[in-house]
Write a structure and sequence with these properties.
alpha+beta, 3-stranded antiparallel beta sheet, 2 helices
Length: 65
């Protein structure tokens, strides 16, 4: 099963969670169960592995406004 990195931000906080899912839509559904509100961004995990996750999250949050 493919692995995805899901960026999230809501009233509880923000972060990147790695999940195994059938596809991007399924990965989003998995995160919506615990983070029902706020923006989400899903990408293949191999695109972010080995990178500074704090920097990636900070950049993503800055683009969210």
């Amino acid at each position: 099963m493919p692995r995805f990195a899901v960026f999230f931000s809501d009233e509880a906080g923000a972060g990147i969670q790695f999940v195994q899912a059938l596809d991007r839509s399924h990965a989003k559904d998995i995160l919506r169960a615990t983070h029902p509100e706020g923006p989400l961004c899903v990408m293949a995990a191999d695109l972010v592995e080995g990178q500074d996750l704090h920097d990636l999250l900070r950049s993503w949050l800055n683009r969210q406004g």
